[in-house]
Amino acid sequence: MIESASHAAQRVRTSPLQPIPRRRPFLNSMSYLDLHREVAQDIDAEIETALERLGPLAGTTRNTVAKLLEQRKLRHPLSVLPLLTHGIETGNPGPAVPLSAVHLLWWTSACYLDDLADADGASICGELTENEALLASVITGNALPIQIVLAQELPEEARSALITEILNGWIIGVDGQIDDMCGDICSASRKSVIETYRGKSGAPFGMITAMAAIFSGASAEKVELWREFGYVFGILWQIFNDQEDILSGRDEDLLNGTVTYLLASVLEDASPATREHMLGLCSAAGRSIPARAELASLLRTPAALDRYRAEIDGFRAEAHRILDELGGDRTYSQVLRHLVDHASQMLLEADLAPATASDAA
Q1: Is 155 helix (H, G, I), strand (E, B) or coil?
Q2: Which residues does 194 contact at the CB level (< 8 Å), separation at least 6?
Q3: How far apart are CA 17 and CA 10, in angstroms?
Q4: Which pLDDT band, with edges at 50, 70 and 90, does 54 fall under?
Q5: Are 196 and 182 in contact (CB under 8 A)?
Q6: Domains of the chain with CATH codes
Q7: How far apart are CA 315 and CA 141, in angstroms?
């Protein structure tokens, strides 16, 4: 599952594509939410310009995409990632606003398509039908991002590289998402799930951080390092999202039969008898509330969460190691480090009295 709930972001007016002011004393303790508030209107303006470029012959498409964007707002404004990447490389995040628009458009499309692929389908309210939203998501995630890149004043080599990143981001991301949908719980392992996460979540983040590095004029070596950072951040963010699903009480991953990292870890460490019992619960979870409740409880034993916490800390340490190697502007590097720490939170608490299916019933 890819998180896509609504996020009400406070808007602060700034001039489009102007450098983020550096004179304010709070910059040293700036958060990624502070940065987003600084540029939220600029990102909106960039998207509005992209919609206008569709022209009078695509008025229906423009209105449909605008409705999709309004209905499918992202809860966490991770569109700051290209800003932070560019800021670390150059000291100025402002010029990367078009890439923040690309990021927001890409994820709006991907989240809708992901929900559509889930068992219960995608939730669409208001004036759009499911088919209209599906067609709008194709334009939102593909045509508009490429259109934004084509509108930038860049050397042809850089423009071509950015478009290639978008294309590869979709290919690798979809490949990972299909792997996720087809995951076999009986053969799943920590390693196989992380490979899936690198695709479905890591590739999109690697795409946008690599794009921002290219946009900043960074060397090829740094572009690849930024891509790897995006992959690791994507793994952390997917694990963060997995935890949020459990805490919400919806347990959509268990309902949909998604093989999460936590589930694969617990199964890999379980005794043969416990593993067989858990596989039975996995099989029944899609249709049985008691089975889902017992399985969710088994995932939250103290031993399971202690191991889970240690593994999250390992991915967090790898992200920080890459940032150490990247160096760059310390102000924006510190903001990105805080964002990594936010994504690395251990949200789950141990269930000291695991439920059984009979208890849940």
Answers
A1: coil
A2: 235, 261
A3: 19
A4: confident
A5: no
A6: 25-360 (1.10.600.10)
A7: 28
- Residue 350: CB atoms within 10 A of its CB come to 13
Average pLDDT estimate for 11-21: 34
For 333, counting Cβ atoms within 10 Å of its Cβ (0-12 exposed, 13-18 middle, 19+ buried), the class is: middle
How many residues are recorded in the chain?
361
Q: What pLDDT sits at residue 355?
A: 53
Cα distance between residue 293 and residue 33, in whole Å? 35
Measured between alpha carbons, how far is 103 from 260 in angstroms, rounded to an integer?
24
10 Å CB burial of residue 324 (0-12, 13-18, 19+) is exposed
CA distances from 75 to 2, 140, 207, 241, 252 (A): 11, 18, 20, 11, 17
**What pTM value is reported for the model?**
0.87
Higher pLDDT, 357 or 274: 274
pLDDT above 90 for 331: yes
